[in-house]
Design a protein that fits this description.
- With 143 residues, the protein is of the alpha/beta class.
- The chain has a single domain, classed as Rossmann fold (3-Layer(aba) Sandwich), CATH 3.40.50.2300.
- It has 5 helices and 5 strands, in the order βαβαβαβαβα.
- A 5-stranded parallel sheet has the order 2-1-3-4-5, with helices on both faces.
- Helix 4 links the parallel strand 4 and strand 5.
- Helix 2 runs parallel beside helix 3.
- 29% of the residues are buried.
């Protein structure tokens, strides 16, 4: 099977969590481009191609890893805006959060997320979660 690149946008305000994703990608040899936005507003700008040249996320084969609790525009607000945008509404989103609140989970699924994953407590488990996601998206047909 041909390995196809996925442009991953991590929407996360916690620098430690950003570093954990970067470390997990490196440890598990996940070589997809990783873009980072610290809130929903910046993420929408990057997805719409209005960011600085190096921060705009290519428009093909995109996946968003989304935290819920962020400043300016939280993850659920981001999802609402994303799903209302004709050009972005089909972008696959996986929530990766510490929020175990039923209302967050239900609202995220109402907004058509591809998955809702609680951040594991240990880095080793976190790296395995990233590897599993990578294997899953390798099988999916993302436009």
């Amino acid at each position: 099977m041909e390995k196809r690149q996925v442009n991953v946008l991590l929407v996360e305000d916690d620098e430690v969590d950003v570093m954990n994703v970067q470390r997990a990608f490196k440890r598990k040899h996940i070589d997809h481009p990783l873009y980072v936005a610290s809130n929903g507003i910046d993420a929408l700008t990057m997805l719409r191609g209005r960011g600085v040249d190096s921060s705009a996320v290519p428009s093909n084969r995109r996946l968003v890893l989304l935290d819920i609790n962020m400043p300016k525009m939280n993850g659920l607000e981001f999802l609402q805006e994303l799903r209302q945008d004709e050009d972005l509404r089909s972008t696959p989103v996986v929530v990766l959060t510490t929020s175990d609140a039923d209302q967050d989970r239900l609202e995220a699924y109402r907004l058509n997320v591809a998955g809702y994953i609680l951040k594991p407590a240990t880095f080793a488990t976190f790296a395995e979660v990233m590897a599993s996601l990578n294997q899953y998206w390798a099988l999916c047909e993302i436009p």
